[in-house]
Amino acid sequence: MGPALVPRKLTVFVAANPAALARAQELTRTFETAYPHISAERGWPDTATPSGPGMLAHLIDAARHCDIAFILHDAQAGGSRGPHGALFEAGVCLGRLGLAPNRVVVLTSLASTLPRYMDGLRVMPLDTRVEELVRLVDAEGALRQPEPDLIRIRADELMWYERHRAKGGRLRDQQEVCVVASKPLELLHPYAATVRDNLNHGIRYNYFFQARPDDVGMVAELFKALVEVGLPTDATTADFARSAARLTSGFRVHLLPQEPPLEFCVHNANDRDDATCFVQRHRDAFFCWYRGAAARQVGRDLLKQTRPSVWGARHIVHGTRAYNEKRRNARQLRAYLVDEIYQRVGARLQPDQIAGYCFGTSH
Questions:
Q1: Whole-angstrom Cα Rg for the chain
Q2: How many independent structural domains does the chain possess?
Q3: 307 inside domain
Q4: Which of 20, 50, 117, 328 is 20 to 30 A from 303, comparing alpha carbons?
Q5: pLDDT digit string, tens, across residues 189-218
Q6: By C-alpha distance, which of 275, 257, 359 is closest to 310?
Q7: Is the entire prediction scored with pTM above 0.70?
């Protein structure tokens, strides 16, 4: 078995003026009891913002390690006091959290009548549902601060995780795997067999390559490895055609205009609790980068680059939002890929068949 992977909790900081104390206590209780992936940081026992000379130090210390800060303000009944204290607290947190406006949320009873000097802050009604606040925590806090715990694993351990749960791994049914790698591990026969088995369990694979000849050669190698694995040595052309056709249901290659800055993969990319992101340092060294909501956000950001209809089409190779694989100067690359695959599989698949599997068109 591989090393234990422990999810990193997301931390929220909750501050409130005295009139909003009950709402702040309700929020922190709900965060801590109903959402185990969130830890609420109050900084002081009763949650209400302290006063006096220690106030600034309290704020700075409490906001230091959080992913997102909620500043609560309730206008006192019958009073006219504006949200100046909330503005001060939001400003301190904004500075402590790297001047990222989306990481500071002001929850106030004056949301519809705020003064203009609060424009630019994320302001929401004081009674905003906690489910909506949790979505903010997941979306805005997951990838920022603090440093992730990096757990080093070998390539064989990574592929142990990349097995379906029925085979002792961690992948769930109907989930997605995202891979950004110049030379995927799946080029090796045992790992290609793992991917084919996962495809049979309804798991979908998204590979991202730069649209250039060197990477297209890797796409051809990957196609060959996944088609051939499991076939007998005396497999017929019909066997190869059936194997290639089955790939079109769950195997996608997305072409990028530029080389990605990192090589990494995301398992269970759509699962808030079980998503896991691994970053590659070199051929046989990977690190567990993020788990849970943070890893899911990495996968989502990557999948946002793909075309919306990518799974509606029955072919493998697609462009991305930044790269159109059908434009004129991309035709040569497409022809090159078909030829590279044909050279590798010999006469067992014809160019028109390969073009159909890869692009949904004839050669």
A1: 25
A2: 2
A3: yes
A4: 328
A5: 889 999 999 999 999 999 999 998 888 889
A6: 359
A7: no
* 120's tokens: 């630019």
- Confirm whether 4 is domain-assigned: no
Judgement on whether residues 308 and 214 belong to the same structural domain of the protein: yes
Residue 159 and residue 119 share a domain: no
Task: Say if CB 82 and CB 118 are below 8 A apart.
Answer: no
Beta-carbon-side half-sphere exposure of residue 336 (alpha carbons within 13 Å): 15
How many residues comprise the chain? 363
Domain that holds residue 62: 10-141
Residues 97, 155 share a domain: no
Determine how many CB atoms are found less than 10 A away from the CB of residue 253. 23
**Structural domain includes residue 235:** yes
**What is the model's pLDDT at position 147?**
45
State the pLDDT at residue 45: 45
Residue 350: exposed, middle, or buried by beta-carbon count in 10 A (0-12, 13-18, 19+)? middle
pLDDT of residue 118: 55
Please indicate, yes or no, if residue 129 is contained in any of the structural domains: yes
Residue type for position 94:
L
Report strand pairing: 151-153 vs 285-291: antiparallel
Residues 96-153: tens digit of each pLDDT: 666 666 677 787 776 555 555 555 667 788 788 878 887 777 765 544 444 445 678 8
Asked if residue 208 and residue 76 are part of one domain, the reply reads no
Backbone φ and ψ of 221, nearest 5°: -65, -40
